[in-house]
Every structure is written in structure tokens, then in C-alpha cells.
Amino acid sequence: MPLQQRTIVRLVAIDSTNRVALELASRGGAAGTVVVAGTQTAGRGRLGKRWESPPEAGLYFSLILRPRLDPASLPQLTLAAGLGAAMAVEGVTGRRVLLKWPNDLLLEGKKIGGILCETGPLWQGCEPVVIVGVGLNVSTPMAAFSEDLRTRATSLLLQAGQVFPQEALLTAMLAAIEAQAGRLERHGLAPVLADWRQRDVTLGQELTWVSTAGTLVHGLSLGVDDAGLLRIRDAAGQVHEVLSGDVRRSGR
Q: How far apart are CA 27 and CA 131, in angstroms?
């Protein structure tokens, strides 16, 4: 859908674009509606983490989707959206963008962006609503990152040495995310996963997984299974299927 055919809410500053998009969706906001902000004062990542959103240095937006998927398949949209975002950024910049399960975009081994998908209330007989929140570090200087992120995060400017137009990135990312979401609806997860796996930065790497219950597991990544779950084999040979929690490459 071209930008001129969308409802686009542009804000100078807001606490969270996902919150605004969820409110719009609850009032009947159409699929394809986008909320874009110059900065977020309370941007969110997975597991309640804060997403740092320095003013005008990044692309911060949320897209309303109304996917024709059963509720059990909705988490797969995170993988589809991540794949679309990576393909779009690569298309604009010419730089290879990889993926870290489930929602991180990486350039040269460092995080440049992330995806946060949130589902609206699921009422019986009503179509599901999913908000795809995206944060992309476009021209963020190193000084804008908190000290604990400086070894793990970067921006397009820092890696490529040039500023890419945010409007071009937004247009490409919206189109690619919707294309991959539509592909998921029509053909299921398999074709999306086939392309996602080509960008999987963790396959064969030593990982540390902290479950939502606080359990700590160290092991080797066996990649993502056909249901979209990450598999980790620990030192005892037990294979853990990871649905949620915090996953990091060991030593990072």
C-alpha cells in the first residue's frame, strides 16, 4: 500500500507508538494505519525492556495489522515482520542485515533494530489485531547509546558512514512487512522460515537463555524449528525449545 493511501499519524514525541496504535485499532483503525514518532519517551522492547529513542536519530513506528490467522499462529508474525524489515533495510542500504531470534535486526554483528508485536484483546468472533512496532537506529551517534549498549548496538550511520532517508526506509519497511505477513497468511510459516533461516545469526553459536521463570540455560543453537521455536542443546545433550525469554550470544 503506497504511503499516500495510508492513514499516517505523525507525532513529534510520544511515550510509545505501540500504545497509540493499539488505541487507534480499538476504535476501528484500519489495517495499514501507521503511527510514526520523532522520539519516544517510553519506547518498549520485548520483556519490558526500554527501547532508547533519541530524537530524530531513528525510525520509530507502529503498524496496525488485522491478519487472517488463528490466535495460535499470531506469534509467528514476529518472525515474518523481522524478515520483512531486514529485507527492506538491506534493499535501501545495500548492507546485509541478519536476524537474531526472535526479533532483532543486526548489522556487522551489532543490533540496529528490533520488532515488538503486540496483540489486541481477542474477542470471540472478532478479527485479531496485531500491532507491529519497529525501532531502527538510522543516524544514532554512539554517544546516544547507554554505556551498556555501546558494545552491542549500532546505527546505519555508524556502520555505513552515511545518512539514509527515513522516508525511504519507512516506505520499504511497511511494504515488506505487509508482504511477509500476507505470505504467512496465504502459505503458512514454512516459506517465511526458509528465508528467515538464511539470515539466522545464532545458528551454531553458543547461547545463553534466561527463561521468563528465571532459569538459566547455556548451550548450542540448533536453529529455529518448523513451529518458529528456537532450539538450544545444553552440555548434557538436552534440547530446549524456547518460546520466550531473553536469548544472548555467549560472551555478549
A: 14
Please report, for residues 34, 71, 217, 233, 236, the alpha-carbon distance to residue 97 in angstroms, rounded to integers and kept in the order given.
23, 29, 27, 26, 33
- ∠ CA 217-222-224 to the nearest 5 degrees? 100
Q: Which CATH class is domain 206-249?
A: mainly beta
Specify the CATH number for 3-197; select among 3.30.930.10, 3.10.450.50, 3.40.50.720, 2.60.40.10.
Answer: 3.30.930.10
pLDDT tens-digit profile, the chain (252 residues): 666 678 999 999 998 999 999 999 989 999 999 999 999 886 665 445 565 667 778 999 999 999 999 988 999 999 999 999 999 999 999 999 999 999 999 999 999 999 999 998 765 556 789 999 999 999 998 888 878 788 889 999 999 999 999 999 999 999 999 999 999 999 999 999 999 999 999 999 999 998 777 788 999 999 999 999 999 999 999 999 998 878 888 765
| Model confidence, pTM | 0.91
